[in-house]
Amino acid sequence: MSDCIFCKIASGEIPAKIVFEDDVFVCFHDLEPQAPVHVLIVPKFHVKSLDDLSKQDEQKMGHIMVSIKKIAELLELKEGYRAVINTGEDGGQTVEHLHIHLMGKRKMNWPAG
Ligand code: AMP
Ligand code: ZN
User: Fold this and answer.
1) Of 47, 74, 80, 99, which alpha carbon lies 20 to 30 A from 26's?
2) Choice among 29, 46, 97, 99 that is catalytic
3) For residue 102, how far is its CA from the centre of ligand 1 (angstroms)?
4) Nearest to 69 by CA among 84, 83, 89
């Protein structure tokens, strides 16, 4: 999508502090970290939110889910971490390109705010 900020980061048009990338996703540091480690894991294909995924996305999304532990290992989140997908207005989503927040290096609260 031409005016999507995360598509632009995925294509290299806009810079980001990239942690890891492969054919399916890019992982980069959040601009406004909410924890000592806070990265975003972003599919390289444009999809607005969880609500917009379809059957054809299963393989790529499965790959992303299975890759989270590798990113956590890379970032040395040995004591655990939280992975969050905000969806829609009530879910607190502000960027309309599906992304997983991966946060760690502090104790997380529950329930989430
Ligand atoms: P959400 O509110 O779940 O949609 O999360 C969007 C996240 O993207 C927020 O945590 C923002 O700080 C982050 N963000 C927005 N623009 C950028 C950017 N250019 N580079 C890195 N993180 C960004
Ligand atoms: Zn996009």
Assistant:
1) 80
2) 99
3) 12
4) 83
